[in-house]
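Hi W.,

Here's what went into the run:
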Amino acid sequence: MLGYAFMGKAHSNAFRKIAYMTWPPPLMPRLVAIAGRNEEAVRGAAERYGYERWTTDWHDIVSDPGITLFDNGGPNAVHAEPTIAAAQAGKHVVCEKPLGRDADESYEIWKAVAATGVKHLCAFNYRFVPAVRLARELIDAGELGEIRHFRGRYLQDWGDDPSLDTWRFHADEAGSGALGDLGAHVVDLARYLVGDLASVSALVKTFLPDRQVDDAIEAAVEFENGAVGTIESTRLALGRRNAFQWEINGSKGSLAFDMERLNELEVFRNGGRTRGFTRVLVSEADHPFWEFWWPPGHIIGWGDTFVNELHHLLRAIADDSEVAPHGATFEDGYRAAEVCDAIVRSGESGKREQLSYRS
Amino acid sequence: MLGYAFMGKAHSNAFRKIAYMTWPPPLMPRLVAIAGRNEEAVRGAAERYGYERWTTDWHDIVSDPGITLFDNGGPNAVHAEPTIAAAQAGKHVVCEKPLGRDADESYEIWKAVAATGVKHLCAFNYRFVPAVRLARELIDAGELGEIRHFRGRYLQDWGDDPSLDTWRFHADEAGSGALGDLGAHVVDLARYLVGDLASVSALVKTFLPDRQVDDAIEAAVEFENGAVGTIESTRLALGRRNAFQWEINGSKGSLAFDMERLNELEVFRNGGRTRGFTRVLVSEADHPFWEFWWPPGHIIGWGDTFVNELHHLLRAIADDSEVAPHGATFEDGYRAAEVCDAIVRSGESGKREQLSYRS
Amino acid sequence: MLGYAFMGKAHSNAFRKIAYMTWPPPLMPRLVAIAGRNEEAVRGAAERYGYERWTTDWHDIVSDPGITLFDNGGPNAVHAEPTIAAAQAGKHVVCEKPLGRDADESYEIWKAVAATGVKHLCAFNYRFVPAVRLARELIDAGELGEIRHFRGRYLQDWGDDPSLDTWRFHADEAGSGALGDLGAHVVDLARYLVGDLASVSALVKTFLPDRQVDDAIEAAVEFENGAVGTIESTRLALGRRNAFQWEINGSKGSLAFDMERLNELEVFRNGGRTRGFTRVLVSEADHPFWEFWWPPGHIIGWGDTFVNELHHLLRAIADDSEVAPHGATFEDGYRAAEVCDAIVRSGESGKREQLSYRS
Amino acid sequence: MLGYAFMGKAHSNAFRKIAYMTWPPPLMPRLVAIAGRNEEAVRGAAERYGYERWTTDWHDIVSDPGITLFDNGGPNAVHAEPTIAAAQAGKHVVCEKPLGRDADESYEIWKAVAATGVKHLCAFNYRFVPAVRLARELIDAGELGEIRHFRGRYLQDWGDDPSLDTWRFHADEAGSGALGDLGAHVVDLARYLVGDLASVSALVKTFLPDRQVDDAIEAAVEFENGAVGTIESTRLALGRRNAFQWEINGSKGSLAFDMERLNELEVFRNGGRTRGFTRVLVSEADHPFWEFWWPPGHIIGWGDTFVNELHHLLRAIADDSEVAPHGATFEDGYRAAEVCDAIVRSGESGKREQLSYRS
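Here's what came out:
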């Protein structure tokens, strides 16, 4: 594990829970080592989460032949080098999103890692919310018909404070602001649920005078399959704490979702006099991932989505099965970055930017 | 009254209800005459709604000196000529939205009518939803602080039927599709609540092969005051029947609204441990327009918003007071049309279109 | 019309709207006369609502052979005598709920009026909310299976003020407090949707020291068909303005409703992976009463339910058809009063009170 | 640990997560031994959850001096003997609810355990939902004023299947049906939030012909402090999967809650024009238990409430502080059982049953 803060906690918790919540686990996680820059902090994290050892130099992890999976939960600026090194050392790799700070860096990571043949997962964990997987399954089964619209927005509100200073506000460390932090999630689910994007017509906005990165992005988008819609993200939507909301309209039905109520999926399908949006509590025995959890109606939390996600990766490693399509690969990470870059370009050029993807 | 269909019913009902729901009314409405092309239909409408006479030629109304208010509820293509003629004959005028089929026609109507000195109201009735007026009052009072975001979408779903054939699908009669029909409402409330728009980056989409007008529009927008957001409208969002939804985020609070629950306004303001969005049932004695209606909690319907609207116009006529800012004037109708035209241009050019308004 | 206050306004508005919203109306309402005790007020009401004349003595109305329908919207204490007199004079009668101040008075009204052969409607208007009628139709069609539970509560909050003084707080004029005012509505819909009650185990509570009538009632109830549940009403539920909420659970489905969102019905039926409560916006062409109203999704208000109700009565008069089962007859008014009396008795005795109904 | 099924999983998960989610934990949990009747199952559970050893005889655990905390997650019929034995062996004890199968058994357990001086917790885990604790804190701070109403219902729907056969349907093993399983939770939160009950007027209903235990209970209740309301529980409310819903009305405000959205608390307090119920997402740094979890808006799941609960117990053991008032002691378990017994008695007698509590 690289990183001991927010994502370090989320991933460590997931590995520990996989050991008994998903039974039997595909592979039994062993928390070998954790790396981080601050010695006191990384030592504390090792003790807390039960890593066998800690280091302030990630090379120690990469060079350890006893480690088979490298999980990069560090800031965006340290995604590329350690992840590539770990893959080249033969370790399977997980990397937090966004994969790189821009499309070029993301492409480099993807190609370098893919060349090694290891499994790679870009940690777009929201694909592993049961309601999101159910949405995908409904769409795959044709229950929505032809998709006409996707409107997705990821709204948070903690950014409206000029005194805040984390790596997330430093252009060199983060690459971008609300775009890479939140917008990348919207782009990924748009791709996962609807398909690849064809163009973006976008604005990029920074409200606070001395902020280095964007506070919000707004985009009108087209998909390759003809669907149209909007993509937004902002850290300045007061009252929205983790409101990743999306809606999809198809020729046979619609879906709506809000991460603040992540156990629910709103589903509309044509019907008779009692048609309307159905609030599905996605917690039944026949719902995705629910074999790991509780009796129906006993909801899971945000942290539990990482259990679903990393279990998927362990299964892929154990069975040598594909991470795709349900897990985001580094190619998915790269493609999301292409869209994010196009949003930036469109914001600057004032033009609709067509998307093309490198292979 | 010109027109006996949907809007004819809505406006006639309003004039009849003003007579006793708003007591005493500023002016007592007298339903003198109704005009329409189909003789049998217009005769039936006159009998039904209680007009003293009917005609198949709107000139009969315009030339009647006993009529002081001309209400144009006809299709978009017959907005300009009768409305201008009525104003030039000294009658106050109401005209359904969109004012004209494009900005040029809207500008012509506005300037011609304004020159006569009569009162003019472009019937953007949603300004007269109590929750919308309350929103405006909260914003005017500074309770939201500086506005950062507006996201508005007007979603309906009746358009997904190739066999439909009304004037609303004929380019020459309607001017546009979801844009003028629904998008114009979004633009008007955006302007009413946030201010004038500065630019749009938009897509215009027609899904059905032989349809002459747009089925959907998607736009990323900037306001003159620096706020950014999205504007969308579509007639192909299955399950959304009249979902005019908007959200506004400011530096001190947020508002959210859905026309399908038009008696409610969601309000967020900073606070302590019990902060969150408050569902305000806008039906209290101290809420806008509520002196006309029922005890608290006894909600009003969509049709009742026209009572509020036309009462406002009668008050302006009776007192010779301004229709603006709460009523939409023909200038507001024109400005909305400029934004709609810019959306069309942006859709074609693939460029961000800056807005400029004629005076 | 007897009464010019809250219910006078609601009923007068309905008669005026029936004339053109329900087209053609079964009978064309003519507002002949209105009676009330306060001369100035009743004169004003006559002018406002368009009654041809007014009187301070209801006998003037009862003796007028030109009047065919007598609508009693006065306080509970003046329900019996004028209503009976009007029926005996051959007029059809509408009487506001509760029919009498207790079961004895209600029985007397019912029997005296029924003996005359006129049409009689006890104005439980909530049967004429489209969502409530739809609920009844779903239950009648067996879509809920065997009914297991009814839980109904009518919550308001305006009663928590010792200085309030209306007839509604005077025991002799009102008969009871939250029980007859709100609880009677719950009892009526329980009967309309589930069937007659078999027993009640109840509490009657007055919170304010000097109040003559109850502030709240709480009851555990059994129905003749074996269903069980609760019935509550209170005027001291802060934040609930007109929250008449009920839920029904059957062996095949469930329904839930809230009067503050009267255009919506929540429907659950067994299904596959997307089962859940469906929010049905009851505003479609194939929904009850919707032929009178607007396009789908354009909601109606509380006042509009009276249009649906009184239209039903006019239809029954015009066609000599039955008011029952969808309209509440005076027998329904009497039966609701029996349940209310049993609640009072149970509150006093501390025992489960079995119900029996006089024929 | 005694028991390896539903509650065994929930408690074991909690002990494992306490070790790193609550940092530093008051005591570091060590999972020493697990007991259960089925050898294969208990061996599997020991391996899965990481217990050092397993046994089919709970006496082995009680007699182990290395164990300081005994957690009884077994069926109701095995609550008394092992729990008392463990306490008498000097171990702190947790026992699942209901404490005993009736008030007598519960009283016996309480008194026997209390006499030993160990810490005892009756596992009413819903007290440890952050929203519930926040509700208690608001009430304690007087923000709701004098409490007038409590209406609580715990609705599930899995019981409508005659073929189901678990210990929960056997009268000798479970004691009661929906009453002890679900109703006891309602009674406990009623007591925790409002205070002790004074009387119940109740029905007990079994719908399925051959079922030994109740399917539903319905009660009108009075509290010692004068509040009144209803308590219901059922396993036959189709569509309600884990709907523990309650509402409290006070003279200054109201609260509403639904366990299916356990991260939210609806709060109403008097205010100005924007009054209404506020949806509080109980996930802020200043909210109860949130120091253990994630950034604001990143919700927790049902299973996480056990972490909060058992952390509280470990803190009480570590600091020798009181389990009460926030944790339910065995006295609380006994008092809830008195109320449940009174509901049964009232169902049989048809009378309002006054409550008295043994000391």
